[in-house]
Amino acid sequence: MALQVNDRPELSEKKPLARLLEGTNPITVRVGNGETAGSWTLPKDLLTHASPFFRAALNGPWPESESREVELREDYPVVFRFFVEWLYIWAFNNGRNPRLASEAGPFLGARAWILGDKLGCPWFQDFALVTLSRGLRTKPGELAPLTRMAYANTPPKSRLRRFLSGMILNCVTRSKAPFNEHNRLLSLIDEVAEVAKDFAKLQMLSPRPFEFNEMWASCFLVSSREQYDL
Description:
The protein is mainly alpha-helical.
């Protein structure tokens, strides 16, 4: 299942990503509203290298390029904090994704994927997707409400929707109950027919549910699956 990414910035051997942390052009990013809002000061070079969204906002003819401030009022501070943690470790690793945070749950992973889609960061989306997949190991009951949330916040045929379609199919086919909440979700999922063939092949190779979770997630990664020991 090949994924095409056309806006990936080139990694220069003469300028390791860690050097982007030394920038002298700090940018303030404010996230959320009210008492729960958060604010971060981050290097412009790092933000614009990692994200086409920030690159357009801070280098284009927009107020943000003059004020050096970006507001993300509709996003969640806890999710952006997850992005910032990833961003710094990703830079120090020169473009390799960090190991997963053990405390991250599936909802944080899904929300992070949606933020990554907005910011145009495919590597962060990979990190978020593996976080989501592994989070469902310990919290499988969150799959149904998480799928509804994802469908309300992502476009048709997105990688997140297709991943969750397979996870729902997996639960339905493995369930011994004649009818459950996952069956009800099938009528809401447009991507079931699209992923069904790949799903059937993969399920034959992964008899244990945990194996399927990670093997299925690896089908939707942009970066190498070896980064996550999948």
